Amino acid sequence: MELSARSEVLFVIASQLIGLEERYGAHNYHPLDVVIERASGAWVYDVAGRQYLDFLAAYSAVNQGHCHPAIYKAMCEQAQKVTLTSRAFRNDQLPLLYKELNELTSFEMALPMNSGAEAVETALKAARKWGEIVKGIPAGQTEIVVAENNFHGRTISIVGFSSDAQYREGFGPFPAGFSRVPFGDAQALRERITPHTCAFLVEPIQGEAGIVVPPEGYLREVAAICRENNVLLLCDEIQSGLGRTGKLFAYMHDGIRPDVVIIGKALSGGFYPISAVLASKEILGVFSPGDHGSTFGGNPLACAVARAALRVIVEESLSERSADLGEYALNRLQQMDSPNVASVRGRGLWIAIELNSSARPFCEALKELGVLCKETHDTVIRLAPPLMISREDLDWGLDRIESVLGLANGAATETLVSAHA
Ligand SMILES: *Cc1c(COP(=O)(O)O)cnc(C)c1O
């Protein structure tokens, strides 16, 4: 087939697939119109065979890179043996995942779930029950404090304490017992705590809010306030954890140790939904058989995948790579002189470019140039490439980001795109 005729056919296929999705699927997302068919490492390929550098990495679920061969091997080998036993019976993978999580993080216990939101729910349940049976708060009266602009998932209880109106509207009534304080303001937390407070839930760096790094010393002060008041500190490291910020967990930058850590996303390297809650025996020990559970949580396929995904993070020094490449990228972007950019911030390979206008047209233009990233909260471009990305690929992407952001307006991208084509 002639090249142009072939690309015409592939374009029609992409349009048809987009049409099916729009017609038969719920419209709870607004994706960029790139139809991905396969991926490898930091690169993804659309149905027309065009390649793109992935600067989102599925919101940090693919820190290890797409289709990592070691995780793929573990998944295939386990899938040929046994995939799901339910927790009615024991399996030979779960104990090994527990042991390896303990060795890696030094938390005494873990509780495996599937999605991030489920792990957050699990942590909230553990904190409430701990509040009642260990702290001695009267039954049904525990209080949990959360931060403004939080993102912890989409269940009814979690959106119930969101400060984003769209997340809440139409979904009430919501569970009671939650209240919000400004993120970054330790004094506000101190004032909010009552004898009924059992926990403070916080992202060490707020991801969906736009990679918001709190003021220096905030987490240390929060940890001290929680300790003084016998309140559990719950860190949601679902997006910030497992290497993303240049350390295994973002809280480590502050030299603190939370009581509960919630992980997900990169725990599977993108192969499978896997999440977990890590904590002490005193906290996770509050659960008795029947208190909590999940049909798929802790299944042998998930555990084999998570074990391989964790090994990759350690063996390929992904936290260290993130620290080095992140510092380089942040310096480069902060030196960029662009009328469109208000500020650049981040930690590790997790960088927010705050624009003076809507970020969407710039993300669309970047897609045309072969770089995939996604706006968050309208004016922020979030950069979160897989942590295994090479320095050369990173530069390739940053070159394009700088050229798109250097343009006076979105319309001029037409010129740029044709110049690159
Ligand atoms: C993605 C995310 C969640 C929710 O995870 P899901 O797997 O989408 O349920 C919770 N907290 C944070 C910080 C996240 O980034």
TrEMBL record:
Top EC class for this record: transferase
Sequence similarity: Belongs to the class-III pyridoxal-phosphate-dependent aminotransferase family.
Enzyme Commission code: 2.6.1.13
KW Protein transport (keyword) present: no
The entry's keywords: Aminotransferase, Pyridoxal phosphate, Transferase
GO MF entries: identical protein binding; ornithine aminotransferase activity; pyridoxal phosphate binding
Keyword Signal tagged: no
Known cofactor(s): pyridoxal 5'-phosphate
UniProt record, GO biological process: L-proline biosynthetic process
UniProt protein name: ornithine aminotransferase
Record pathway: Amino-acid biosynthesis; L-proline biosynthesis; L-glutamate 5-semialdehyde from L-ornithine: step 1/1
Alphabetical list of InterPro entries matching this protein: Aminotrans_3, Aminotrans_3_PPA_site, Class-III_PLP-dep_AT, Orn_aminotrans, PyrdxlP-dep_Trfase, PyrdxlP-dep_Trfase_major, PyrdxlP-dep_Trfase_small
